[in-house]
Amino acid sequence: xxxxxxxxxxxxxxxxxxxxxxxxxxxxxxxxxxxxxxxxxxxxxxxxxxxxxxxxxxxxxxxxxxxxxxxxxxxxxxxxxxxxxxxxx
Length: 89
What we know:
The protein is α+β, with helices and mostly antiparallel strands. The chain has a single domain (7-88), classed as Alpha-Beta Plaits (2-Layer Sandwich). Helices cover 33% and strands 20% of the residues. Strands 2-3-1-4 form a 4-stranded antiparallel β-sheet, covered by helices on one side.
């Protein structure tokens, strides 16, 4: 479950760029949520690693309960497919 902070970041080194874009598109359908890409960590390019450093999510602290549930379900779905999220505040 993501933190209920005004903003937090999620990351997972196993998620490819296209899937991060898909996740961002799903999250941005929730009223009040804004999503921004995080720069990848400085390292040699590797196709087996993510090309993004993660996503910064803002607005989660102001969500209605139903929208909070949608946020949780979206993130849980991808965590089940790609392994757990690393959350930072």
